[in-house]
Amino acid sequence: MNKVVTRRAVVFFISDFQAPDFSHELAVTGRRHDLVAIEIRDEREQVLPNVGIIRLEDAETGEQIEINTADRATRTRFSDLAREKEQELARTLRRNNVDAITLRTSEDYLPALRAFFKQRAHRVALG
After folding, report:
1. In Å, what is the CA distance from 105 to each residue of 13, 16, 26, 44?
2. How far apart are CA 7 and CA 4, in angstroms?
3. Pick from 104, 55, 56, 46: which is nearest to 78 by CA?
4. φ and ψ at residue 46, rounded to 5 degrees
5. What is the CA radius of gyration of the chain?
6. Which pLDDT score is estimated for 106?
7. Can you tell me the distance from the alpha carbon of 11 to that of 27, in angstroms, rounded to the nearest whole number?
8. What are the angstrom distances between the C-alpha of 15 and each of 4, 6, 62, 121?
9. Of 52, 47, 54, 44, whose CA–CA distance to 105 is shortest?
10. What pLDDT does residue 101 have?
11. Which of 33, 43, 82, 119 could in theory staple to 11 by disulfide, Cβ–Cβ 3.0 to 4.6 A?
């Protein structure tokens, strides 16, 4: 991105942010451009349903594990880890002065986008 677009621009970074640490790249891009992070969040990645034993596969490595979703501690740990990742992302974005929008796959995206741009326009107008 930084090598292709040499002049300052508004950049929309659309992702689920389920990648390894990208804070350095985010900081570099955030210094060069007006960066807006748009996080696509699926509730199924936040709450593990109680459906018994399931096999999960990492789409990138092919590694597989079996977990018992009937175990309350497993479901709680899953939710806790998802919440920790969410909080770490928010800290990283704030630290790098990156505006953020969270869009949920279960909801209409237009109200969230409208609210974000209305708030952003108001903030820019103030100064």
Report:
1. 17, 11, 24, 10
2. 9
3. 46
4. -115, -30
5. 18
6. 95
7. 13
8. 19, 22, 21, 23
9. 44
10. 95
11. 33
Task: Look up residue 58 and give its amino acid.
Answer: D
d(CA 8, CA 80): 38
Q: Are 43 and 104 in contact (CB under 8 A)?
A: yes
Tokens read off for 116? 């974000």
pLDDT digits (tens, 9 = 90+) for 23-76: 888 888 888 898 999 999 998 899 999 999 999 898 889 999 999 999 999 999
Phi-psi region of 126 (alpha: psi -120 to 50; beta: other; left: phi over 0): alpha
Closest of 78, 74, 89, 81 to residue 19, by C-alpha = 89
Model confidence pTM above 0.70 = yes
Distances (CA, A) of 120 to 97, 116, 126: 13, 6, 10
Instruction: List all residues 6 or more positions away from 34 whose beta carbon is below 8 Å from its beta carbon.
Output: 8, 9, 10, 11
